[in-house]
Write a structure and sequence with these properties.
By secondary structure, this protein is α+β, with helices and mostly antiparallel strands. Among the domains are: 249 residues, Beta Barrel (Catalase HpII,  Chain A, domain 1), CATH 2.40.180; 152 residues, Class I glutamine amidotransferase (GATase) domain (Rossmann fold, 3-Layer(aba) Sandwich). The strands form 4 sheets. Strands 5, 6, 7, 8, 9, 10, 11, 12, 13 and 14 form a 10-stranded antiparallel sheet that branches. The chain binds CIS-heme D hydroxychlorin gamma-spirolactone. The site of CIS-heme D hydroxychlorin gamma-spirolactone (HDD) has 25 residues, from strand 6, strand 7, strand 8 and helix 9. Its EC number is 1.11.1.6.
């Protein structure tokens, strides 16, 4: 090793990125120059001033390009420890992907408490207004493998780890407030049926196949969830524009041990938004990382996404009088019946420095609750409390996954757990048990430690589903009737598409028999589109659908959309000779709205604008289809538009935007492209001739409406 006491500090620093020099970073010992890293650690320096490449044992590497061999063309040698170590490590780079939620994307941020909730919970993070608690969030899809595309029709995971002062709290939720099944024992069957079929190993990240719909149609408790997954909730435009839910009923417990039931809701500040199904399919081709890229871009550019944490609080009396069992995870409590109360906000402001270390290795567990938060008897939640700890052992390879920085609490923690694979927190000293008479080590504390809510429980040991869980259709109908006409159309289209991929006719018909218990028009529409000749009878129901429940506007995405275009993206297709003044004004108007503008041009090198200035494009037309944007505009010169008219991708750009009911702005020169795209005769309030740079603010304010869904029935009639 190097003897630092004999070293000489030299007044020179070299950094790899810039090659610049400064005064403190290089230490010379004898003839060895060492580079001091950020944490004060020393690295050897290579000939070009960069850190020296070493083996994992710290041995300096002379040649990382050629393995050791006999002669220039001879066999390789076992002596080559550097080669062996490098390949050995590479061979073991992968860990098992999550059995569900394999594809995910995470970010760091903080949670800020609005006001003390001392009366209802002793949870430390809710005791002080303005308190900031660090969080890590992982969004995910459920069914697809790690490399599947982002816009699969699927539930999205919304898992939040709060690093509180009294231990980690994991709120492991989804973007849908209910679940498919009422008992965790059904989870393996549900997931087997949803994922690719085991003999053929397809379809990937899709529920549009026989096994899924076979299981679902034999599981009436899933019908409420079927309405949600066939709605646009499962094709969100961005993680930033979706809600999150804790799903189950939990308990808040105060310092006196009194309990209040609680359901958790995350509300995105920028409102809800989803894409159209045809658009989702195309996004998957154009940018399979669409959701990742969106979150990355937003956070890297300082547009930090934000959600409010809201709660529905209720007591036993409310639970006893509510229409449904609050322990049944296939049911909501409508927000109109029990309003949500905002209790804090979460801001995501930092991407992980290393995807594997944090997003892949993060281990969420429903049983991670701090004092003041407790479980209810929801059988799905109780089953989950077993599953999550168990799965981490398999995935992360040993019991010490809590030592990984992403999983370790940020508060002090002490116990007598020891050893095991990859132990990184190793206590020193003799005493590793308690009680001990040496007065060493941590001690339990009845007053400060976690106290489980002392619920009264008694009864026979049985395998039973309570009668109160038996109404599987009323809330499904309520969800359907609470949607706008466009959203109802989308549910019918989604069911038709999914069931059209089911080969077994009896399964299709069984699904129609369930739909008849939800909404007759929906059932008939889907049956007709599937070409079912004779309508089946409605499915036998343990409890028939109740009288119509009140419509719940909170269940619609369209009715809870944004008020403005903020956080969205306008794609502007431009040609050489584009009006420089108009383009510049459009950009400033969009940016004033805190939205993004990206340019698409025939060449990615960009175009020359009317004033001779060069404008660089973000995308070449083939790589920037309109599905990647929330709204589009076409700005052209007379000569430029002639070229665009010849490009199939430019015609698709406009035709797709029209079909997906987007706003389309265009200047006079661009009109011929609308003609070529076949939409010139169908212009409506969403196709806007840009009124010159003065009227751009009005155009951008229209964009806040996001879509012209009224256009859709016309398109279906073959207008465009
Ligand atoms: Fe689960 C992962 C959400 C039911 C068993 N689940 C997982 C993740 C989310 C959810 C968001 C990904 C966490 C991450 O990003 O690492 N799961 C839910 C919700 C459910 C639900 C909202 C119903 C309300 N899950 C559920 C049941 C079981 C599981 C009933 C088993 C009995 N879930 C798991 C798991 C996973 C998981 C196998 C896979 C990887 C992991 O846990 O860490 O244990």
């Amino acid at each position: 090793m190097f003897n630092l006491s004999q070293g000489t500090i030299v007044a020179k620093r070299t950094t790899r990125a810039t090659g610049s020099t400064s005064s403190t970073d290089i230490v010379t010992i004898h003839d060895q120059q060492l580079h001091r890293g950020k944490g004060g650690e020393l690295h050897q320096i290579a000939e070009d001033g960069a850190e020296l490449l070493t083996t994992s044992q710290g041995g300096p590497v002379a040649d990382d390009q050629n393995s050791l061999r006999i002669g220039a063309r001879g066999p390789l040698l076992v002596d080559d420890f550097h080669f062996r170590e490098k390949i050995f490590h590479f061979d073991h780079e992968r860990i098992p992907e999550r059995v569900v939620h394999a594809r995910g994307y995470g970010a760091h941020g903080f949670f800020e408490t609005y006001e003390p909730l001392t009366e209802i919970t002793r949870a430390d993070l809710f005791q002080r207004a303005g308190e900031k608690t660090p969080v890590f969030v992982r969004f995910s899809t459920v069914a697809g493998n790690k490399g599947s595309a982002d816009l699969a029709r699927d539930v999205r995971g919304f898992a939040v780890k709060f690093y509180t002062q009294e231990g980690n709290w994991d709120l492991v939720g989804n973007n849908i407030p209910i679940f498919f099944i009422q008992d965790a024992i059904k989870f393996p069957d549900l997931i087997h049926a949803a994922k690719q079929e085991p003999d053929r190993a397809f379809p990937q990240a899709q529920t549009a196949h026989d096994n899924f719909w076979d299981f679902i149609s034999l599981t009436p408790e899933s019908m409420n969830m079927v309405m949600w997954i066939m709605s646009d909730r499962t094709i969100p435009r961005s993680f930033r524009f979706m809600e999150g839910f804790g799903v189950h009923t939990f308990r808040f417990v105060n310092a006196k041990g009194a309990s209040t039931f609680v359901k958790f809701h995350w509300k995105p500040k920028l409102g809800l938004q989803s894409v159209a199904w045809n658009e989702a399919v195309k996004i998957n081709g154009a940018d399979p990382d669409f959701h990742r890229r969106d979150l990355w871009q937003a956070i890297q550019s300082g547009n930090f996404p934000e959600w409010e944490l809201c709660v529905q609080l209720f007591d036993q009396e409310f639970a006893d009088n509510f229409d449904f069992d609050v322990l049944d995870p296939t049911k909501i409590i409508p927000e109109e019946v029990l309003p949500v109360k905002p209790i804090g906000r979460m801001v995501l402001d930092r991407m992980p420095g290393n995807f594997f270390a944090e997003t892949e290795q993060v281990a969420f567990m429903t049983q991670n609750v701090p004092p003041g938060i407790d479980f209810s008897n929801d059988p799905l939640l109780q089953g989950r409390n077993f599953s999550y700890l168990d799965t981490q052992l398999k995935r992360l390879g040993g019991p010490n996954f809590t030592h990984l920085p992403i999983n370790a609490p940020k508060c002090p923690f002490h116990n007598f757990q020891q050893d095991g694979h990859m132990a990184m927190r190793n206590p020193v000293g003799r005493v590793n048990y308690q009680p001990n008479s040496f007065g060493e080590g941590p001690r339990q504390s009845p007053s400060k430690g976690y106290q489980h809510f002392a619920a009264d429980e008694n009864g026979q040991k049985v395998r039973l589903r309570p009668e109160s869980f038996a109404d599987h259709y009323s809330q499904a109908r309520q969800f359907f009737l609470s949607q706008t006409p466009a959203e109802q159309r989308h549910i019918a289209m989604a069911l038709t598409f999914e069931l059209s991929k089911v080969e077994t006719v009896a399964i299709r018909e069984r699904m129609i028999s369930h739909l008849l218990n939800i909404d007759e028009t929906l059932a008939t529409t889907v049956a007709q589109k599937l070409g079912i000749q004779a309508m089946p009878k409605p499915a036998d129901a343990a409890i028939p659908t109740r009288q119509d429940l009140e419509r719940s506007p909170a269940l619609s995405i369209v009715e809870n959309g944004p008020k403005r275009f903020e956080g969205r993206k306008l794609g502007v297709l431009v040609t050489d000779g584009v009006d420089a003044k108009l383009l510049k004004k459009l950009k400033t108007t969009i940016e004033k709205e805190k939205a993004l503008l990206e340019l698409i041009a025939p060449k990615v090198g960009g175009v020359t604008a009317s004033d001779g200035s060069r404008v660089e494009a973000h995308h070449m037309i083939d790589g920037g289809p309109s599905v990647l944007f929330d709204a589009v505009a076409v700005l052209a010169s007379p000569a430029g538009i002639e070229d665009l008219e010849m490009e199939a991708t430019a015609r698709d750009f406009v035709a797709d935007a029209f079909q997906h009911c987007k706003f389309i702005g265009y200047d006079e020169n661009a009109f011929p492209l609308l003609v070529k795209a076949g939409i010139a005769n169908d212009l409506d309030e969403g196709t806007i001739l840009l009124p010159g740079d003065e009227g751009l603010a009005a155009f951008v304010s229209e964009l806040g409406k996001l879509r012209v869904w009224g256009r859709e029935p016309g398109i279906k009639l073959g207008k465009a």
